[in-house]
Specification:
Helices cover 67% and strands 2% of the residues. It is built from 13 helices and two strands. The chain is globular, with a radius of gyration of 21 Å. The structure holds Phenylacetyl coenzyme A (FAQ). This is 1,2-phenylacetyl-CoA epoxidase subunit A.
Length: 310
């Protein structure tokens, strides 16, 4: 048991001791975690929709079963993460209400449409690639249940990233039409993937406090740079061109320099104005309403069983 005061709490964080659900924690720490973990959970759940759009149209049975498994993994990640948020006293029902009303945020990236099969490759390659870069450090974050959930999630994301790259590789080794589908998908998903890492550090209102609490271990710009440095050689291997004329190796920094994303587009998507925001929320609300009878039946069953107990 720890003394309920902020200095000793911060000392424990600095010493690398994990915070567990029953430990004392500052209200701000709890709130920040509920915000980030629930946004993360919503992202996994809404994140099923763009790819779900292609399950019935996957080009082969093998691709279809891989995609089905990936989308199911994302549902699982969402459920882990809602459970992690519940350990902080959040009620799942409230989190879902906030998602369905448009009050809660989820990742901007899932508000873009999947127009061709190549988009499924690009999502796995770029979006899951970004997710891994963001989530590997979270395995070491200060809150125990979140850190532990991330371990398994990251293993699955690594598989997702490879399946995406494998789709891109197949297309890039295919016909000229297939190569141009792959290039078109990269052209459309590149900038949203770059922006997915969040606003620039100077505009990231939560970073300083979250990093002090080790809820975040790296800043948005650090992770964005890592994503770009890792992805450029992969694009070269595929023979694809990244749609950024400002992209250039900087020998002095030992990193790629890159152009400025369209931050106005980013904020607009976050505020609900992206190409698919309304469609995504509508799909989630409908799924929730369609599932009402399952929840009612489970509740009735549990009540009946409780009555039968001696
Ligand atoms: N979209 O002060 P910061 C996946 C908001 S991976 C929407 O920098 P923070 C796997 C931010 O919430 C995707 N909103 O915020 C998958 C804040 O607003 P608030 C999910 C964004 O929290 C792959 C405001 O802007 N991963 O799902 C975004 O310190 C394929 C100011 O920003 C996670 O959630 C954005 N991109 O840093 C599934 C990882 N960026 O809340 C299916 C955990 C920022 O104050 C298919 N989360 N905002 O009202 C994090 O690491 C952090 O929360 C960041 C944002 C880095 C996302």
């Amino acid at each position: 048991p720890t003394a309920p005061d902020e200095p000793s709490f911060q000392q424990r964080i600095d010493a690398g001791i994990k915070i567990e659900p029953r430990d004392w924690m500052p209200e701000g720490y709890r709130k920040t975690l509920v915000r980030q973990i629930s946004q993360h959970a919503h992202s996994e759940i809404v994140g099923q929709l763009p790819e779900g759009n292609w399950i019935t149209r996957a080009p082969t049975l093998r691709r279809k079963s891989i995609l089905l498994a990936k989308v199911q993994d994302e549902a699982g990640h969402g459920l882990y993460l809602y459970s992690a948020a519940e350990t902080l006293g959040a009620a799942r029902e409230d989190l879902l209400t906030d998602l369905h009303s448009g009050r809660a945020k989820y990742s901007s990236i899932f508000n873009y449409p999947t127009l061709s099969w190549a988009d499924i490759g690009a999502i796995g390659w770029l979006v899951d690639g970004s997710a891994i870069i963001n989530q590997i450090p979270l395995c070491r974050c200060s809150y125990g249940p979140y850190a532990r959930a991330m371990v398994r999630v990251c293993k699955e994301e690594a598989f997702h990233q490879r399946q995406g790259f494998d789709i891109m590789l197949t297309l890039c080794r295919g016909t000229p039409e297939q190569r141009s589908m792959a290039q078109d998908a990269l052209d459309r998903w590149w900038w949203p993937s770059v922006m997915m890492h969040g606003p620039r550090d100077e505009d990231s209102v939560n970073s300083a406090q979250s990093m002090q609490w080790k809820i975040k271990l790296h800043s948005n710009d650090e992770l964005r740079q890592k994503f770009i440095d890792q992805t450029v050689p992969q694009a070269e291997f595929l023979g694809l061109t990244i749609p950024d004329p400002g992209l250039k190796w900087n020998a002095e920094r030992q990193h790629y320099d890159y152009g400025e994303p369209n931050w106005q587009e980013f904020w607009n998507v976050i505020k609900g104005g992206g190409p698919c925001n309304r469609e995504r929320l509508r799909a989630r609300v409908k799924a929730y309403e369609d599932g009402a009878w399952v929840r009612a039946a489970a509740l009735a069953h549990a009540e009946k069983r409780a009555k039968r107990q001696p």
